[in-house]
Design goal:
alpha+beta; 5-stranded antiparallel sheet; 3 helices
C-alpha cells in the first residue's frame, strides 16, 4: 500500500514521513496498487530499467505488437509500471530480462498509484 497524502497534502516519501512525525493526529490517504497477469507471445517491445539491487523491472516504454497485446488484456498497463515476475518465476532483474526474450510468456505487472 502507498501513502499518497498526509492531511490532504501530497509530497515525496520523505516529506510525507516528516508530516506524519510532526503531528500527533494526522489524516492519511492510502492507495492500494493493482496487479495484473498478462500473457504475451513475445517480450519484445519493452524499454526496461532496473537498479542493481532492485527486485522489479521498471517499464520505461512499450511499442509494437507487445503494446497492442497488453492494451487488449489490460489497457491500464503502461509506462511507469513494474514487472514483478515472468512465467511465475521469482527471478533477479537480469534473469527476468533474459526470460522476456522467450515466447508465450506470463508477466505479472504492478500498477502503483500515481502521486
Amino acid at each position: 500500500d502507498y501513502i499518497t497524502r498526509v492531511n490532504g497534502t501530497s509530497g515525496s516519501a520523505k516529506e510525507l514521513g516528516e508530516m506524519l512525525c510532526a503531528k500527533s493526529q494526522t489524516q492519511v490517504t492510502i492507495h492500494r496498487p493493482s496487479t495484473y497477469a498478462v500473457h504475451v507471445s513475445k517480450g519484445e517491445g519493452m524499454t526496461l530499467n532496473h537498479t542493481a539491487r532492485g527486485k522489479t523491472l521498471y517499464i520505461a516504454g512499450l511499442s509494437g505488437g507487445l503494446l497492442q497485446e497488453l492494451r487488449e488484456q489490460a489497457p491500464e498497463i503502461g509506462q511507469g509500471h513494474r514487472i514483478l515476475s515472468v512465467s511465475g518465476k521469482d527471478l533477479s532483474c537480469k534473469d527476468m530480462i533474459k526470460e522476456l526474450k522467450g515466447s508465450n510468456l506470463k508477466i505479472d505487472i504492478l500498477r502503483a498509484p500515481v502521486v
